[in-house]
Amino acid sequence: MGLILGLIGVLFVYLSPEFGADPNEEKVAQFEKLDHYSDGEFHNLIPTNMDMDIAKAIKMLPEFFKNDPSRKPDFEIPIEKVDSLELTSLSIPTRLIWFGHSAFLLQIDGKNILIDPMLGEVPAPHPWLGKKRFSKELPIEIEQLPEIDLIIFSHDHYDHLDYGSVQKLMSKTKSFYVPLGVGSHLEAWGVEPEIIHEMDWWQEIDAQGLKLVFTPSRHFSGRGLNNRFATLWGSWVISGAQENLYFSGDGGYGPHFKEIGQKYGPFDFAMLECGQYNERWKEIHMMPEETALAAKDIQAEVFMPIHWAAFSLAMHSWTDPVERVLIKANSIQQPIYIPKIGSRIEINGNLNSKEKWWVKPE
């Protein structure tokens, strides 16, 4: 039986489309010219502890799957629904709609942009290998979304790059902007190569009138058992005619935040990772207090904690991120905004709501 299960596992890894594809030899040859790539792997800008290998991760699985009721809401968290017609108005101000975790619809300068649109139920290569989304529904389903001008991805982990979501989105999307190597996954899934734009750290590009800059983060990549670091990871600067936004992707705290702030700040609004952390891997996922410090570093007028409120991917309680980051942000007088999933976040609007919607109603 063990042999059969092992064979099934191997076949699943090599045959399931969920795993995507590794960069080909031609791409790898180009990567080898970079100072942050060697021995077949991309590297962080500063030394980063990556001791959490596959063996250690497997040993930790019982703790991860432990039935801890604090790791998910014990009530239906409020979700604001979005009408598809509302998204097609000609007079929409620059705004974001949050899907939970790190997924957003950004409407800016007449463009519809999806950021890390993981809109599936389980952030894993198979539903049996992960935990379901907290909420039973999204603010709006993929099929109801308008035509998408561009999608940007921060890295290729399952809670950010989702095969099922890409399958539903690619027929209504004009272009994709991704880190180096991530285009190989999209091509394997049927996206036309000519609409995929792979980018390196600090690379700038005009994307349909918007300025995009792919900036560093302190993290890693990989979707399979042996392709960790095969593709690049990072964060994004998105600049329109008036507004300047920052999206952190995933990563640990480091000096790159100040450098990004000095080069491209200040930012009108920043979306910063705050969730799925642990002291054992704090170098690749910020602690909540560091998230508030990062907002200061990048010179954010207002920041929003992301990477929480949708999935349980660590051992902390589901509200621990927001509770801790609020305390730190207030102590350093860094403006913070914590909207409900689905609410319209108008960049030049009132971002001072203090409603603690994550607290169970009496």
How would you characterize the overall build of this protein?
This protein is an alpha/beta fold. It has helices at about 1-15, 25-30, 55-65, 165-170, 185-190, 255-265, 290-295, 320-330; strands at about 35-40, 40, 95-100, 105-110, 110-115, 150, 175-180, 195-200, 205, 210-215, 235-240, 245, 270-275, 305, 345. It has a single domain (about 65-345), classed as Ribonuclease Z/Hydroxyacylglutathione hydrolase-like (Metallo-beta-lactamase, Chain A, 4-Layer Sandwich), CATH 3.60.15. Helix content is about 20%, strand content about 15%. The strands form three sheets. It has a seven-stranded mixed β-sheet with strand order 8-7-6-5-4-3-15. A six-stranded mixed β-sheet has the order 9-10-11-12-13-14. α6 (about 255-265) packs parallel to α7. It starts with a helix and ends in a 16-residue tail after the last strand. The model is unreliable at about 1-10 (pLDDT under 50). This is Multidrug resistance protein RomA. Pfam families: Lactamase_B_2 (PF12706).
What's the quick description here?
By secondary structure, the protein is an alpha/beta fold. Helices cover 21% and strands 17% of the residues. It is globular, with a radius of gyration of 19 Å.
Give the arrangement of secondary structure elements:
Blueprint lengths: L1 H14 L9 H7 L5 E2 L2 E2 L11 H11 L30 E4 L5 E5 L2 E5 L34 E3 L10 H7 L6 E4 L3 H6 L7 E4 L3 E5 L2 E6 L19 E5 L4 E4 L8 H9 L4 E5 L14 H10 L5 E4 L13 H12 L12 E3 L16
Pfam families: Lactamase_B_2
Protein name: Multidrug resistance protein RomA
InterPro entries: Metallo-B-lactamas (IPR001279), NAPE-PLD (IPR024884), RibonucZ/Hydroxyglut_hydro (IPR036866)
